[in-house]
């Protein structure tokens, strides 16, 4: 469950979509985690929310430092070029990598993909399609990782209290 309230997020559908992403990225159900907020790619947990952990892990797809409930990457000089957390956290003016900051940045990324109004309206298949390049586990992402079907994700969205249009 996101730490941001439905009122602050823009409604229950937004919170349910955040749950959908956490579930899809395989963080929110990780054993002993803080609902996925402290998970590094591969399943390792990190202890400190003061900043993105920037711990590079060699995966079968290459190096990654994806972290948190939404598996957002940050730059590491000479290792990781993807700097999504760096620019998005500045745009959101968040002070740390806390659960609330992660929620705010994820909502910003959803909005940036043009999907936030679709999420609010319950057009989840459309929103998933618009966000597929942001999260590798969404159907059609094309990053070579495990992708969930839209039907599976919609079922998770509904379990989280989301409503379809």
Largest sheet: 2 strands, antiparallel
**Structural class of the secondary elements?**
mainly alpha
Q: Pick out the low-confidence regions.
A: none
Total separate domains: 1
The count of β-strands is 2
CATH fold annotation: Lysozyme
The tally of helices reads: 7
Strand residues, percent: under 5%
Distance between the termini: 22 Å
Rg measurement, Å: 15 Å
* CATH class category label: Mainly Alpha
Q: Which architecture would the CATH scheme give at its second level?
A: Orthogonal Bundle
SSE arrangement, N to C: HHEEHHHHH
Walk across the major sheet and give the strand order: 1-2
Whole-number mean pLDDT? 96
Shape: globular
Question: How would you describe what is shown here?
Answer:
The protein is mainly alpha-helical and 165 residues long. The chain has 7 helices and 2 strands, in the order ααββααααα. It has helices spanning 6-9, 12-24, 84-92, 99-112, 116-121, 124-131, 150-159; strands at residues 57-59, 62-64. A hairpin with a 2-residue loop joins β1 and β2 (62-64). The two termini are 22 Å apart.
What topology emerges from the helices and strands here?
Blueprint: H1 6-9, H2 12-24, E1 57-59, E2 62-64, H3 84-92, H4 99-112, H5 116-121, H6 124-131, H7 150-159
Antiparallel strand pairs: 1-2
Helix pairs in contact: 2-7, 3-4
